[in-house]
Structures are given as C-alpha cells and as structure tokens.
Amino acid sequence: MERELITIVTPTAPRATKRTRLAPRKSATLNNARIGLLDNNKPNADRFLESVGALLKQRYEGVELIAKRKMTRTGADGLQEFADRCDVVINAFAD
Amino acid sequence: MVTDEFMALARTESSMRGLSQVPLVEIPHPVGSIALDALRALARSALNSMTDALTAGRIHTNSPVGEKEGCALEPPTAEVPADAALMFQYFVNRGWSDGLPALAPTRAAVDAMIASCGLEKDAVLGVIPPLNGIATAEKVAANAVMAGCLPEYFPLLLAAMRGVLQPGFNLDGVQTTTGNVAPLTIINGPCRNSLQINYSSNAMGQGWRANATIGRALRLVLCNIGGATPATFDKSTLGQPSKYTFCLAENEEENPWGPLHAERGFSADADAVSVFGCSGVNSAVDMASQTAKGLLKTFALTMIGGFTSGVTSTETMLVICPEHAAILSAGGYSKTAIRDELFALARVAHEQISDENLRLLANRRPGSFQAGGTKIPVIDRPEDLWIIVAGGKGAKSAYIPGRTGTHLQTTMVANQAAAISCRC
Questions:
Q1: Out of B61, B133, B138, whose CB is closest to A22?
Q2: Is the pTM for the entire model greater than 0.90?
Q3: What ipTM score was computed for the predicted complex, to two decimals?
Q4: pLDDT band for position B420 (50/70/90)?
Q5: Which residue of A20, A46, A52 is in closest CB contact with B50?
Q6: For residues B183 and B132, what is the distance between their CA atoms, to the nearest angstrom?
C-alpha cells in the first residue's frame, strides 16, 4: 500500500554568510614582529600562550609580545585597538 | 589555536564569517586541566604550524571566500509521511527533532501561526548563530507549530526571540558553550491569565501547554534555524532538562514588590517577555524560618551551593515563592534590601576553593579579591541578582545561576512585531 504523504514547511532556514578576505601577511618572517596573544580566559589559555610566546622569542629576533584577555567569544572591548597594535595575532578559541 | 574537539565548530564559525580559509592550528583536547610541562610540549608541537600561518607566502590571502549568501540547506517544503509515528521518525532522521514527537508544520498551520502576529511570512526577525540561519516569520512559525504552540502564543515566542537576539544575551556563547545554559523565558502582564500561562503551583514543571510549548518552540528555533546541533555545535558537556523547554510566568498577584517587567521599565499593564541564561535550578527549601533575616540566611546558603556551577561571575535569579515573599515583605525588605543582604551573606571562604580555581578567579574577578579579604562573594554586585515571584502554596523557592557574559533581556510583546533589520 502506498503511504500517504503531506506537504510541510521545513523548519530549517537558509544561512546568511559573508564574503571577506584574510588579512595579508606583512612579512615572510616574524623577526621584529609585534605578536598579539589573545587569551579567551579559559583555564590554562594564558599559560599555553605564554609558552608559545617564549618559543617565538627564542626562534625570532626583536619579537614584541602583546597579551590580551577577553571574557566572551564575541563583542570584546578594545579588539580593534588590540589588532591595530599587532602585526599578527594568535587567538585561543574554545576550551 | 583550537583543540581537536572544537575544530568543527571553529571551521563553521570561520566560514560563517566569510573566512573559511583562516588558518586554524589544531592541538589535542584538553588544555585546561593539563600540567605546565605538557602545556609547553603542546606549544612546541604547534609552533611550526603557527608560524606558517602568520607569515607571508604560506597561505593565500587574495581571494574572497565564503558561501553564497542565503544558501539553503533544505528545500522550503518537504513531502513527509502523514502517519504520526512515521513522520516523527522522519523528523528525527533529518535532525529536526528535540527527541520528542512534533506536530506537522503544514502550510495551513504555519499560516495560522503567522496570522496571529500580522507579519509577512518573509519578514526577517534576525540571524541565529552558530550557523547564521535567517529566521523569517515563516520558519519560526514552522517550529512553533512543531512544538505544539497555539497561534495566540506566537507573539510571545517572537518577543523571546527578540530577547535572545540582543547582543547582551550573547547567543553565540549560549548556543555553543560546554556549559549547561538554557534560555529561561519569563512572561509578565495580562496575557499570563488570558493565555493560561502557569505562574502558580508547579510553574517550572510539566502540565501546562503554554509553558511547555513556548519554551520548546524557542529551543527548536535555536536548533533548526540556528543550527545548534548537539555534540557538533552545541558543545554542552552535560546539558540540562531545561534545554527541552523552560518557560514560566511571574506570580504578579502575590508579588509584594512589583513585577519584573515594571522593574525593567515597562508598564505593568503591558505584556512583556524576559529571557535569562539559566544554568540549572537550585531548590531553596525553608519551611521553618519565620523572619526575613532567617530566610535570607537560607537563600544565601543556597547561593553558596550554586557557586560550584561557575568560577565566574554571572547574573543570577531568585524565584521566590509567595509564602517566602510574604515573610520578606512583612519584614520590611524591598528587592534592593534583599539584594544587598544576600550580596553580603552569600560568600565563600578562599580555603574552600581549590588553588587552581582561586587563580582563575583572580583573573576573572579581580574586583572581588579585595585587599586582605578571605571570602569571595557569589555575585560581583547586588544588582546581579534578579528577583521574581512564582509558585503556589509551600515554602520552596529557587536560585538559578546564570552564565558569564549573558545578561537578562526584556522585550515587550507586540501584536504587530517589527522586523529586525538584518545585515547578512
């Protein structure tokens, strides 16, 4: 026996997406770079980024480390100003 | 820097922001609970990938990327089995279900839902993270039908949606956190009685269509339109039952202080909906205390118990039952006086907190570490405690911790809800 079908409105929706470009990398090396370390305030994120920063300082000359902590995933204060002060940023995401 | 457990979420979020090529360096989960030596080893292992991602010549940065705007994952309609059990299984198979049976969002049912608010079906109410689903009146209505809402509830659901879409609610975080946060919807105003929304006995429990289906509809919207699929994008470690549905009204008739929406600046005669990021319900039982002072000691103990749910500062909520409210009011306590006293009383001694968490708290709540202090307050400020009155007979109130970075939002219920402009 053929099963009866009915038409429904699907409960899912199209997605809104953006089209943007990655920021150009300024240099082929991190010598003399201002490197931002963006801590998402999860446990150990600060220690992990400190370790990364120490390793980068060993590997490259004239590195300046700029650390920042943010409380939430979005809408953190001063992110643009932080980005302006850095040549590159390493961002900790999630747990 | 992303741990492997969160890579799918990170890739999707990058893509939704038009940066699907943003370099993500993967490290093994977890990071938070491992020793310093292991952390350093992790940093060493990821160093080359990181430096490649940060320097020129290793990645392409000149071509715009991202999906075409408004790309649809599903056709706008579908043919599904008419048989209820088969339809339920169809919804489960498509990932459209919260695990419970749902009604069929037929064209007629969806149109009746939309008609209750006067919106065009294509009116855009907002964009819901993490997948940035475009919430049109029609798609929200489809979810409301599935949840079992009556059309009269639809304006309340739309008000709740406006609330969770306010930046201060931080829906991005609520949808994807490892925490157990769920939106708690609180209804105020005359509609509580006309729509039979429970604010009395068992107001947080089962048995009332409006409470059950309004809360459930919001959850279905967040999952089906927002894409908060459990485990993939909704990363909650345990979740909580409130994630199925959590909606109640305030017992304004037995509130000696005035209702929440009036405190939030709306007319007491207006219908309003508040949304709060709820991290679990702690029962505040006190059948013996006969004075306000005694009762507040009990509330403070409950708040201290709830402190374990977060080494962060959050907004919190006290749901005071009418009998407790009467004792506090007879003792001369206003909401402000209750807040001030609980801020002072609900404190945890440093020695009761682990060294690691104390270190975390010092980072996250530096203001709460006063010079020479030996205790930390459960809340940062008295005004971080919201107070509502709900429930029936009995001496059982409830304390509900919130979520970091999520703030209570209150919106008025509009019959002719204004569409929120959407920039895609």
A1: B61
A2: no
A3: 0.87
A4: very low
A5: A52
A6: 18
- In angstroms, rounded to a whole number, what is the distance separating the alpha carbons of residues B246 and B401? 14
Is residue B1 within 8 angstroms of chain A, CB to CB?
A: yes
Q: Is B66 left (phi over 0), alpha (psi -120 to 50) or beta?
A: left
* The predicted structure's pLDDT at residue B416: 45
User: Which of chain A's residues have a Cβ under 8 Å away from the Cβ of B364?
Assistant: 41, 71
Q: Order the strands of the B272-278 sheet from edge to edge.
A: B247-249, B182-188, B272-278, B409-412
- Exposure pattern of B171-205 as b/e (b: 16+ CB <10 Å)? bbbbbbbbbbbbbbbbbbbebbeebebbbbeebbe
Residues 6+ apart with CB under 8 A from B330: B292
* Strand B272-278 relative to strand B409-412, pairing: antiparallel
Q: Which of B63, B66, B83 is opposite residue A3, by nearest beta carbon?
A: B83
How confident is residue A75, by pLDDT bands cut at 50, 70 and 90? low
Phi, psi of B341, deg, nearest 5: -70, -40
Q: Residue A49, Cβ neighbours under 10 Å: how many?
A: 26
| Mutation target among B17, B24, B27, B31 for the A interface, most CBs of A within 10 A | B31
Segment B288-326, tens digit of pLDDT: 999 999 999 999 999 998 886 556 778 999 999 999 999
Cross-chain residue pair A88–B143, CB shorter than 8 Å: no
3-state SS, residue B107: helix
- For the stretch B91-149, pLDDT in tens is 999 999 999 999 999 999 999 999 999 899 999 999 999 999 999 999 999 999 999 99
